[in-house]
Automatic annotation (TrEMBL), chain B:
Residues covered by the FAD dependent oxidoreductase domain: 8-349
Pfam family, one: DAO
InterPro entries: FAD-dep_OxRdtase, FAD/NAD-bd_sf
Gene Ontology molecular functions: oxidoreductase activity
The organism of origin for this protein: Phreatobacter aquaticus
Oxidoreductase in keyword set: yes
GO cellular component, one term: cytoplasm
Name the record gives this protein: FAD-binding oxidoreductase
Sorted UniProt keywords: Oxidoreductase
Length: 475, 372
């Protein structure tokens, strides 16, 4: 019933897969679990089964290489599993293809990646508006365009990746709307140039965008999206370096899709559920677990790596994953100190090499306080529960001092996404309204399940007589 | 240190019990302060299932539960704020002969105590609640049932207390309580708070609170698991339980279904509800889906655990603290969200020098039992 192992790794992106490989190579019995059908995570995602992409980018190649190494390894791959329960020291319960499953091991590596962040604007809940990361999945895994005519807007390098992806698949990009102006990118060039291979990839995107003569609005942000029942146009206007709307002419683009994103938020549910210590780091995208250089959390035998521990990107995540896998193997006494040091040194160096590049990219994706401050009162912030900015402000004024109390007052974050979409912005709004640092308003108390999970897959088939009903309470 | 009394009454613990008590005491003319280590009603009073049911209430609490049910239903009038109370029918289901016997026995005793519970046939139960399984044998039916949105409790009480003029001291842990010749001094990081009379209303924390006064009152900590679905189309309209009491189930007007029943998770007084036990969560959900078959198509959005306090005989600790003048305890009430407001109101009457119209539950019985 319960699969016992030496190590469980949750999340098969670059971080989790490398962690599983490193620990497995050192001799641990490793189970690698993911909701997706194959390894690769969001960035290095495998195309849908049976789908052959005409042209492969560097991400697809990196993903194929990772999947090939995984296939040749002894790692027990459990894909298509939706993990809903995480227990201490350590047990995972999952809804699998054949019903409920349980996994147990003395060690757990959490490599659960990131969620995307959209700083709300009027109209962002209209059908036709999707996240940049969501658009990436469509393009990479399903070879599907987000729309016939797409505005690509927001901040960070995903803008260019998505625009280039749309162009490569023959789609039309109505405009690229980047919150950063050209000067901001020029200032970033030294940091980006530290990883020439990645810079080259970025330049490749730029080249295809230039070739398609797409209107490029630097220093602009989305003011609002309009449409009756679905998106019909996007109105953009100038913004300053902090993301606040600036004076200047608004422009409107007719389109049937808007791919928009303002960075990524670490998906650190597992260390939060298990109550590891966390701290707030704006550059890295939000509250992240306290880690030693090898990914050890403050909970014994719980490790974390990848974008769930702070936004760095796929390649640094792979290095961090390797370190976590090695640390788990070392702590399990499968590696001696010299071997561990030698193997870890390579990944530590890789991580250090990536750091200036990763910091530069992360800075472009970090939450901009002035952009949040400019959200209009009637704009919906929590789209699951239709909670507006004005309602959040009113809750703070009524005495909701932290994000969990604000949730009680408003239902913000109580819907199916459990605050994954709105949490970072909502907490920023509470902090701004109170005039206190983000640390003081905290983060959502993390609960199971990690994702909504259908009852019928959780409970399987059963007889009433088999339900272990406890004895009744005293009368 | 000054021991001059600042407040006539200090209430330590800001759940439903402490908040109701402080509100009625202040309205009765006592200058009252309420102190909580966190925000008001964020422990058991804010994270429970919100069920207002007589069919899970201890028989001895039925009169209080009846009055408290009416208080919740009229919260707008006396509290001034809504907590999303819906009054509806409630059904307690029996699927087996054993459960049928249990149901008849329990419903009978509760009815004798004043609860309007009748036993109805399968067909009648299906008319009351078309969503239930036709596998039932019979059901207990109570027209005084319903539920609140427990998470709104703190917001409602906070506003009411402030409007009434109570000094609300949130996020202010009390580290110790000292007796002086003029009353009590509560030690907090922000300085002492002094009052002439004190009520300890800390739920599961009543045990450490009583220790401040040198009294040992053991309080057991229950860790109740709860789950809630995403919003789904209407699949039920009543509060549904089973004969053993191990299920509480209802669908809120916005579409979510909350599943409870006291299935135990892991946790303790220090850390709260730490972890849900997957087998028990699945058991609770199986029971819910067995009762309301259409629920099986819903998705679990969230599960959590909240603490509930229980004395040695599972009856409340509500009354004066023996041997310590002007000190009272109030809490550890089974299904306390349902009955709490009424019991707190009775103790407020006692503190205000009035005769309570419903009996309290003095702790002498528990202290005797605790001392060999």
């Amino acid at each position: 019933m319960t699969r016992q192992a030496d190590l469980l790794v949750l999340g098969a992106g670059p971080a989790g897969t490398e962690a599983a490989l490193a620990a497995s190579e050192a001799g641990l019995d490793v189970v690698l679990i993911d909701e997706q059908a194959d390894a690769g995570g969001q960035g290095w995602r495998a195309p849908l089964s049976g789908l052959t992409l005409p042209r492969k980018g560097p991400d697809a190649e990196a993903g194929d290489a990772l999947r090939a190494r995984l296939a040749a390894s002894r790692v027990d791959r459990r894909f298509g599993r939706r993990v809903w329960s995480i227990g201490g020291a350590f047990r995972l319960d999952a809804a699998g293809p054949d019903g409920p499953e349980a996994y147990q091991a003395p060690r757990l590596i959490a490599a659960t990646g990131a969620h995307e962040r959209v700083v709300p604007f009027p109209g962002w809940t209209l059908p036709g508006v999707i996240g940049l990361a969501g658009a990436t999945v469509l393009l990479k895994a399903q070879a599907v365009l987000p729309g016939r005519r797409v505005v690509v807007a927001g901040s960070g390098p995903l803008l260019f990746a998505v625009a280039a992806g749309i162009i490569a698949k023959g789609g039309e990009v109505a405009a690229i709307v980047d919150m950063d102006n050209r000067l901001a990118w020029a200032k970033r060039l030294p940091g980006l140039a530290r990883r020439f291979d990645l810079l080259k990839e970025g330049l490749g995107w730029t080249w295809s965008i230039l070739g398609a003569r797409v209107p490029f609005l630097a220093g602009y942000g989305v003011r609002r999206a309009t449409g009756e029942t679905e998106l019909s146009s996007v109105i953009v206007g100038p913004v300053d370096a902090n993301g606040a709307p600036a004076d200047g002419t608004e422009r409107s683009f007719d389109c049937d899709a808007l791919a928009v994103g303002h960075g990524l938020v670490p998906g650190g549910e597992v260390p939060k559920i298990l109550r590891a210590d966390h701290f707030y780091d704006r550059l890295r995208g939000g509250f992240i677990p306290e880690l030693d250089p090898f990914g050890r959390t403050t909970i014994e035998n719980l490790y974390a790596c990848g974008d769930g521990t702070g936004i760095r990107g796929a390649r640094p995540s792979a290095a961090a994953g390797r370190l976590a896998g090695l640390a788990a193997a070392y702590d399990a006494e499968r590696l001696d100190e010299r071997t561990f040091d030698a193997l870890a040194a390579l990944s530590l160096k890789a991580l250090a090499d990536y750091r200036p590049f990763a910091d530069t990219v992360a800075a472009a994706m970090a939450l901009r306080p002035a952009q949040v401050a400019a959200i209009t009162p009637e704009t919906i912030v929590c789209r699951c529960e239709d909670v507006t900015r004005a309602e959040i402000d009113a809750a703070v004024d009524a005495g909701a001092g932290d994000i969990n109390q604000m949730k009680h007052f408003t239902r913000c974050g109580m819907g199916p996404c459990q605050g994954r979409m709105c949490g970072d912005v909502a907490a920023e709004l509470v902090a701004q309204r109170r005039g206190v640092p983000r640390d003081e308003v905290g983060f959502w108390t993390q609960r199971v399940p990690l994702r909504p999970v259908p009852f019928d897959t959780m409970i399987g088939t059963f007889d009433y007589a088999d339900i272990p009903i406890p004895p009744p309470a005293p009368l | 240190m000054s021991t001059a009394p600042t407040y006539d009454l200090g209430v330590i613990g800001g759940g439903v019990v402490g908040s109701t008590l402080a509100l009625f005491a202040q309205r009765g003319g006592l200058k009252t302060a309420i102190i909580d280590r966190g925000p008001l009603c964020r422990e058991a009073s804010g994270v429970n299932a919100g069920t207002l049911t007589l069919q899970m209430t201890r028989v001895a609490l039925i009169p209080h539960a009846m009055r408290a049910h009416a208080m919740w239903a009229s919260a707008r009038e006396w509290l001034g704020h809504d907590v999303g109370v819906v009054v509806c029918d409630g059904l307690s289901l029996a699927f087996t002969e054993r459960e049928a016997a249990l149901l008849e026995e329990r419903a009978g005793k509760r009815r004798a105590a004043g609860a309007p519970i009748t036993i109805v046939s399968r067909d009648e139960a299906l008319r009351v609640e078309p969503g239930i399984s036709d596998k039932i044998l019979m059901a207990g039916h109570c027209v005084v049932d319903g539920y609140a949105n427990a998470y709104l409790t703190g917001q409602a009480f906070r506003a009411a207390l402030i409007e009434a003029g109570v000094a609300v001291m949130e996020n202010r842990p009390v580290k110790g309580l000292e007796r002086t010749d003029k009353g009590f001094v509560a030690e907090t990081a922000e300085g002492p708070v002094t009052f002439r009379r004190v009520v300890l209303a800390g739920g599961v924390w009543i045990e450490p609170m009583m220790a401040w006064l040198g009294v040992h009152l053991p309080i057991k900590v229950l860790v109740n698991q709860l789950t809630v679905t995403e919003r789904i189309r209407p699949v039920m309209r009543t509060v549904v339980g089973i004969a053993s009491g191990l299920l509480s189930l209802k669908q809120y007007p916005h579409g979510t279904v909350v599943i409870g029943g006291g299935w135990q998770g892991l946790g303790d007084r220090e850390r709260g509800g730490v972890e849900l036990v997957p087998e028990r969560l699945v058991g609770n959900i199986r029971l819910a889906c067995h009762a309301i078959p259409e629920l099986a198509g819903a998705r679990l959005a969230r599960g959590w655990a909240g603490l509930e306090a229980e004395t040695a005989d599972a009856l409340p600790a509500a009354g004066p603290i023996p041997g310590i003048p002007d000190a009272y305890v109030c809490g550890s009430i089974h299904s306390g969200y349902t009955s709490g407001p009424s019991i707190a109101r009775s103790l407020a009457d006692v503190i205000l020098g009035r005769e309570p119209d419903l009996p309290l539950f003095p702790i002498d019985r528990l202290l005797k039992a605790a001392t060999p």
